[in-house]
Amino acid sequence: MRNSARVSIKGTEQTIRVLNMVRSSVLKRVEAAVVESARAVQRGAKDRVPVRTGVLKKSIRVSLKKERLLAEVGPRWKGRVHPLAHLVEFGHLARNGRFVAARPFLLPAWEGERAHFEKRIKEAVRGGVEAK
């Protein structure tokens, strides 16, 4: 008596091709959704950041890492995080000993975009699957 079974599935090559097309379509749509939300967070942060000289506002950038579907939004200066950004975002002690209140700009920008981001991702996946 044999303890094995042989299964033959017809159309596997075609199924694999269709799945690869769906994967490609979904990835493109998700990537577009990530970029769109990152740009929205950037706009929101620039709208909220307090402006004294404008350097901090100009430094808010989007960095895309497409191979990982990742976007980073934040103040960059000389290849690093802007040295004053955290002081503005979270507040700090001034040289005279008084506390300078926080003036958050980045976190509120993300919180304002979060629901839209989740909706965009869901629509991207749904649309990529339905397109095929």
Please mark out the parts with pLDDT under 50 across 5 or more consecutive residues, or reply none: none
| Mean pLDDT, all residues | 86
Question: From N to C, what is the helix and strand string?
Answer: HHEEEHEEH
Count all strands and give the number: 5
Calculate Rg over CA atoms.
Answer: 23 Å
Percent range for helical residues?
40-55%
Number of domains: 1
Number of helices: 4
Query: Largest beta sheet: what is the strand line-up?
Result: 1-2-3
Shape: elongated
Describe the largest sheet. Answer: 3 strands, antiparallel
Q: How much beta, percentage-wise?
A: 15-25%
* Broad structural category: alpha+beta
Amino-to-carboxy terminus distance: 44 Å
Question: Can you tag this structure with a few keywords?
Answer:
single chain, 132 residues, alpha+beta, 3-stranded antiparallel beta sheet, two-stranded antiparallel sheet, 55% helix
Briefly summarize what is shown:
55% of the residues lie in helices and 15% in strands. With 132 residues, the chain is an alpha+beta fold. The strands form two sheets. The protein has a three-stranded antiparallel beta sheet with strand order 1-2-3. A two-stranded antiparallel sheet has the order 4-5.
Describe this structure in words.
With 132 residues, this protein is α+β, with helices and mostly antiparallel strands. The protein has helices spanning 12-48, 55-58, 85-90, 106-130, and strands at 60-65, 70-77, 80-81, 92-93, 99-100. The strands form two sheets. A three-stranded antiparallel sheet has the order 1-2-3. A two-stranded antiparallel sheet has the order 4-5. The model has no long low-confidence stretch (mean pLDDT 86).
